[in-house]
User: Fold this.
Amino acid sequence: MPIGYTTYCAGLLEDLGNQQVLVTAQEEATPEGTQVLMELELAEPPHPGMLSEVNSELLSGGVLPWAGYRDVAFSDASDSRRVYVAWTKGIAWSGIIIGILLFLLPTILGGILWFLIPQSVKDMLLMMGALMILLPIMGMVVKER
Assistant:
């Protein structure tokens, strides 16, 4: 292993499904932009075209290959049973974080503004809110009679 790289053994391919939580935790602990390499030693060489299909699925799913590489999944030239999956860790949670920020940002700004406006305006807004709630209720009561 080259100097500056860290190796984590996730287990055997048969156990990878059981160890998925461990693998996910290891990847989440790595900083964004980290180059991740997974080596798989298969019992038999993959069928022709299987790696290109896996590679196209990964690329279309948004998995980024290493800089200077065009493929994410490829086999070892000296041993066709050995398959590598090499990707660059991206921001996995960016969509959720942006969604949360878009939801929370107006709430936070509204809270800040609430402390800046005068008390008379606050009272008027509270009365308008109470009126918006009471009008439909009063309308239902009147219709029942």
